[in-house]
Specification:
Elements: E1 4-11, E2 17-27, E3 34-44, E4 55-65, E5 68-77
Parallel strand pairs: 3-5
Antiparallel strand pairs: 1-2, 1-4, 2-3, 4-5
């Protein structure tokens, strides 16, 4: 089963590619305080439908380019 992630589009300037930021909460191992971490993924957007601020769900695929191995599955929110 392939992994699914959900995140917010932060860049749509490339052709057929969007950069999506995924935020998550982690807990510090000693102090037990929660803190927010984020990671950016380049995802394949064949029809260039994503715009900055959209919320998208994407799945892991075979490598499409050097650092792009995720593909858009559906747009959850449009801005």
């Amino acid at each position: 089963m392939s992994r699914k992630l959900k995140g917010t589009v932060v860049s749509d300037k490339m052709d057929k590619t969007a950069v999506v930021r995924v935020d998550s909460l982690k807990t510090h191992p000693i102090y037990k305080k929660k803190f927010k971490v984020s990671k950016k993924y380049k995802i394949h957007d064949e029809e260039n439908v994503l715009k900055i601020g959209d919320v998208a769900e994407f799945v892991e695929t075979r490598p499409i380019s050097k650092d792009k191995s995720w593909a858009l599955s559906k747009v959850l929110e449009k801005v």
